[in-house]
Structure formats: C-alpha cells, structure tokens
UniProtKB/TrEMBL annotation:
InterPro entries: EmrE-like (IPR037185), PUP_plant (IPR030182). One of its GO terms (cellular component) is membrane. This is Probable purine permease. It comes from Punica granatum. Belongs to the purine permeases (TC 2.A.7.14) family.
C-alpha cells in the first residue's frame, strides 16, 4: 500500500503507528471474545445486543479526530501567519463521497458479520470459536488475491491448507466440548455461524484495502479514523434495527437484575465490551493503513491461540485432543506463513539492490576507456 502512505518521508512515525495499531488490535482480538463469552456464561442471552456492542464504541473515534483537526488548523494558521500558505483552511471532514458510501456499505456488512460471530459465541466455548476464527486468515488471503492482487507463495498456500485442516479437525469432533444442556443441532448451527463469520470478515478486510485504493484521495491516518467511525456507525445502526425487532432494549434492565455477577458488573461488562471491541476494529483498520489487509489478518490469527489459552485459564474450558491437534496445525500454519514472508522480503530486497547496481551509470574512468577503444 505504498501509494497510500500519508507520510512517505517519515517512516519512523509510520512504524510507530503500525506498532500502536498492532497493540490495540491484540487487545481487541484477545479481550473481545473473552468478555463476550463472560456475558453469555453468567446469564446473558441477547445475541443482537452482543453484536451491537462490537461496534457501539464508535464515538470514541471523535476525540482523536477532533485533536487531529485542531492540529491541522493550527498548522495552517501558523503557515498563513508566515505567508507560507495561501490555501483554504483545512476541512473538519476529509472523506469524499466515494469513501463515505464505501465505508457505509462495509459497515452494513460488518454489522451482519458481528451478528454471525455473536451467534456462534453464544453457543461455543471461546477456545473452540477462536480456533475456528483462525481459518479467517485463509479467507483473507484468498479474497486479498482476488480483490487487491495479493501475491501468493508456496508457504502462504501451505499456511492456508493447514489452517483449513485445523478447522476441519474441530468440525469432525465438534460436539466433544459442547456446553452442558445444549443440543447437537444448536451447537452445530453455532459452529457453522462462526465459520461463516470467519469467511465474511476475511472478505471485509481486503474490501477495506480495495476501498483505500479506489478512493482517489490521499489516505491519511485521520481519514482512516473517519472511515472507521462511519463504518462502525452503520454497523451499529444495522444491529440497532435487529435489537428493536428483537426487543432487546426493553429486556436489558430485567437481564441486568438477573445477571449472575450482579447488576453493576452487568453494565460494566457492556461498557468494557464496547471499548475492547472498538480496539479490535480500530487496530485492524490501522494495520491495513500501515501495511495490508493480509497483515491485519495474520495478526488476528496469531493472537487467537493466546485467546484459547486464556479461555482455558479463566473459564476452565477443556483442552481436548481435537483442540490440541487443531492448535498445533494453526501454529504450524502461522510459522509457515511468516517464514515465507521473511524469505520473500529478503529476496525482494536483494533483487532491488541488484537492479539499482545495474542501473547505475559507469564510473568516469570506464567511460574514458570505452571511448579510447578502436
């Protein structure tokens, strides 16, 4: 995404943004599923509410956007005072109509994906759903190839195969960790909904990158925040419609009073859930801006085994043989992909250095000697 760099002469700042985005994404990837499962374990039953909370924290983005606008405005004022700027003052909104419409469409798709994921989370242990979501990397890689012409290597193909196989292993013995009192049919539907959520978000990540490419405007981090805000707003609006139809808003006070951890902790879980899930989406969008959609998918996939381990520790979930095999296959797939990327990067850097040497003009003495030849 070199053509979308907002600060091409300041790679250090770009790296800082990437590291910060990775940290935020890691918090959201590990914390989001755990706090959502905590809600369901202790008596929460509203799937639409859980999906709504995944993007309901969108107003958080207003604060950094306001700071960014104030900073741009001060820069313009200082430049104008020195006579170095004759342009119009910066606009509070950078997004043009195309990106606005694109982010709204992606937002609606995200809202649907939120529901699919929340439905599966209500019926599956976190350790199982996390391993299923690991297959998202395979879907991200495939859609990245189709939408943004992402290049494949033998290592990335091997990674896709291993991650798919890991999901198949879980599927063959899907009922081995079924929660108590849950029927085979309900568990199977939850399993398939989680797979669908993985596939759907694997499509959304490259779609965001494609929107950046087709936007026909410089993609700055402020613009990325605007994209995130609009996307999450429309995703929340989509889920709000579902909540209204399902009458979730009327049920919240009663559910809070009956919640296993108490009414205060119920509302604390709701607030923290909105904040943590916003970290997930903000981090994912940031990594796409600084690197690529596939890089975002990889980081999500890498953190999923950590989520599984935390689920076993905090929720006392069983680490079955199938989960163990699936976990090993997933880690093997991650290692394969990273090793291939390292080799590909080294080869590309070597080819670039060789091309630079070949394109350099010959030294003056060589030119003189060539002229003296008969």
């Amino acid at each position: 995404m070199g053509e979308h760099e907002a600060i091409p002469d300041n790679t250090t700042l770009k790296k800082i943004l990437l590291v910060l985005s990775i940290i935020i994404l890691s918090i959201g990837t590990t914390g989001g599923p755990l706090i959502m499962r905590l809600y369901f374990i202790h008596g929460g039953k509203r799937v639409w509410l859980s999906s709504w909370l995944e993007t309901a924290g969108w107003p958080i983005n207003i604060a950094p956007l306001a700071i960014s606008y104030i900073y741009r405005r001060r820069q313009w004022a200082a430049a104008t005072a020195k006579g170095a700027s004759s342009g119009l003052p910066p606009r509070p909104v950078l997004m043009k109509p195309f990106l606005f419409v694109a982010s709204a469409v992606v937002g609606i798709l995200t809202g649907l994906d939120d529901y699919l994921y929340a439905y599966g989370a209500a019926r599956l242990p976190v350790s199982t759903s996390s391993l299923i979501i690991a297959s998202q990397l395979a879907f991200t890689a495939g859609f990245a190839f189709l939408l943004v012409k992402q290049r494949f290597t033998s290592y990335s193909i091997n990674s896709v195969f291993l991650l798919t196989l890991a999901a198949v292993v879980l599927g063959l013995h899907a009922g081995s960790d079924r929660p108590e009192g849950e029927s085979d049919r309900v568990y199977a539907v939850g399993f398939m909904m989680t797979v669908a959520a993985a596939a759907f978000y694997g499509f959304i990540l490259p779609l965001v990158e494609l929107c950046y490419q087709k936007g026909k405007q410089t993609i700055t981090y402020s613009l990325v925040l605007e994209y995130q805000l609009v996307m999450c707003f429309f995703a929340t609006a989509f889920c709000t419609v579902g909540m209204l139809i399902n009458k979730d808003f009327q049920v919240i006070p009663r559910e809070a009073k009956e919640f296993g951890l108490g009414e205060f902790k119920y509302y604390m879980i709701i607030v923290c859930s909105a904040i943590i899930w916003q970290c997930f989406f903000l981090g994912a969008i940031g990594v796409i801006f600084c690197a690529s959609s596939l890089s975002s998918g990889i980081i999500i996939a890498v953190m999923l085994p950590m989520t599984e381990v935390l689920a076993v520790i905090f929720f006392k979930e069983k680490l079955t043989a199938e989960k163990g095999v699936s976990l090993v296959l997933s880690l093997w797939g991650f290692v394969s992909y990273f090793y291939g990327e390292i080799k590909h990067t080294k080869k590309r850097n070597l080819n670039q250095s060789q091309n630079q040497k070949q394109n350099q003009p010959p030294p003056p003495e060589m030119e003189l000697n060539s002229q003296s030849l008969p």
